[in-house]
Amino acid sequence: MSALVRTDDAALAEAVGTVPPASPLAPTPGPSPAGRQRGFGRRVRTVVPPLLVIAAVLALWQLFVTVRHVDPQLLPGPNLIAHSTWDDRVNIWPAIGVTTEEAVLGMALAVIVGVVFAVSIDSFRPVRGSLYPIIVASQTVPIIALAPLVLVWWGFGLVPKIVLVALFSFFPISVGLVQGLASADPDAMNLLRTMRANRFQLLRRVRFPSALPHFFTGLKISVTYAYSAAIVAEFVGAQQGLGVYMTTAIRAAPIRTDLVLGAVFVIAILTLALFAIVGLIERLAMPWRPKP
Amino acid sequence: MTVRGANLELRGVAKRFSGNDGDVVAVDGVDLVARDGEFVSLIGPSGCGKSTLFNIVAGLERASGGHVLINGEELCDRLGASAYMPQHDALLDWRRVIDNVGLSLELQGVRRDEARRRALPLLQRFGLGEFTRAWPWQLSGGMRQRVAFLRTVIADRPLLLLDEPFGALDGITRADLQQWLNQVWSEVGATVLLVTHDISEAVFLSDRIYVMSPRPGRVTSVIDVDLPRPRTAAQKEDTRFLAVEQRLRHELNAAMSAWGEFAGSQP
Known about the structure:
The complex is a heterodimer of chains A (292) and B (267). Chain A has 292 residues and is mostly helical. Chain A has two domains: 33-69; 72-285, MetI-like (MetI-like fold, Orthogonal Bundle). In chain A, 77% of the residues lie in helices and 0% in strands. Chain A contains eleven helices and no strands. Chain A has helices at residues 9-16, 33-68, 78-87, 89-123, 125-138, 143-154, 158-182, 186-194, 199-236, 242-251, 257-285. The longest helix of chain A has 38 residues, at 199-236. Chain A is globular and about 75 Å long. The model of chain A is unreliable at 1-35 (pLDDT under 50). Chain B has eight helices and nine strands. In chain B, helix 5 packs parallel to helix 6 (171-188). Chain B is an alpha/beta fold and 267 residues long. The longest helix of chain B is centred in the last third of the chain and has 26 residues, at 239-264. Chain B has two domains: 8-82 and 159-264, 3-Layer(aba) Sandwich (Rossmann fold); 89-156. In chain B, 36% of the residues lie in helices and 24% in strands. Classes of the chains: A mainly alpha (292), B alpha/beta (267). The A-B interface holds A 5, 7-8, 11-12, 14-17, 20, 23, 25-27, 29, 185, 187-188, 190-197, 201, 205-206, 209-210, 286, 288-290 and B 55, 58-60, 79-80, 82-84, 86-88, 90, 92-96, 98-99, 103-104, 107-108, 112-113, 116-117, 120, 129-138, 155.
């Protein structure tokens, strides 16, 4: 994706030759130390408040559980959850690996399907009329209800999980990209037409780069579904994974509520990590945007 | 740059759009001539069909009637026969300045490093040497227009079409850019057709000015500007310059009031 719009800095430096002397008007290359500090400060200001809120909620939860002597099978405190999950890390590690593989491969399939749908909807008028409503309608189907069928069709292995994750996730990607492709600046399109650009060149040079921000907005929404979709698929039928881990903890006698909630926290953290990775890819794919 | 100018001739060019309640005539019977190396302006109030006429010459729209001749030839497909600078700079945000300038070369199949090699001297020659690596968002409005103009020039086309290139700029920047444009153009030697709504700009830059009236867009008068070249900002104080400006203002008022009476006579 980024290869299409990448600017080759080395080739540029070669073509430009020596770097011209710095001028007060010239844009400064890279952030100044002061700018970097300001960026760091801003990052601290954006990260610290939500962490404080989370810490406060966990503290209140722990206080409530301890003071009221709540049965840990009903609601364990965060302290117990953390300890039990850590003690059970031998079991949870492989589960994380399996589910992550499903989520990431499912996202990859969702991106492929989403892009193919979006580009065909955009390229062919008849397809726009016939395919777009179907894709929208597909989102009214309860995908969870399809999970057992998907397993019947593809068995209990990796494939049905990937398919389910993709089914959950491709829609925001498609919609974002369709909207993005339609949002290209008409002036720029006309300009390239006067330069005799063909349809493919228009797509590659103007419409695709201007669609990227919309595409990534869609992808960021999608990626938050990935782990949940993988776990739903595992609930229905699987040998390994976080979904299986949770099912096992629920079916244990006595029930291991602490481990179920531990897995929930792990999933939340994994989803956040996936979201952050997409954010990083977004920045790398669009180097022309001002640094946040 | 070794561009020769083109001879542009419009004969009775018309453009009608069909709407729900009958046809709308946007441009009607426009005759216009721009000879090799001339700087010709179209001036008129908004809605007089300047931009439509422009898109027809550029090949973006088809005329409903009349002829457009470039060097005596009427081409079916005029896209690429001229270089076009749109009203808004239309710089591509994802290309550095140097790559925005080299865009048309790359579209013709020139490799990117070769396009840069050709864009670089142009940028250095015309005061943008320090900005080659900048992204468009880092530039001021005036700088963006300079980049957009060099992007138009690099294509080596004998005819340049400039659609209100300085319309969105403040007065000081605009005057600065008019002089800059004058300098670049005198070295390029291409024929220029400029659309503007600025009287002083038209007089300062042009060899000839076509005044248009709105609804339908018609040429109501032609003014030859025989002020000496190269022109300088000091000339704007000159009585001859002011006299041309005054005449142009009269013609524009006449074009407007003719339309006003026409519009006023409608029930």
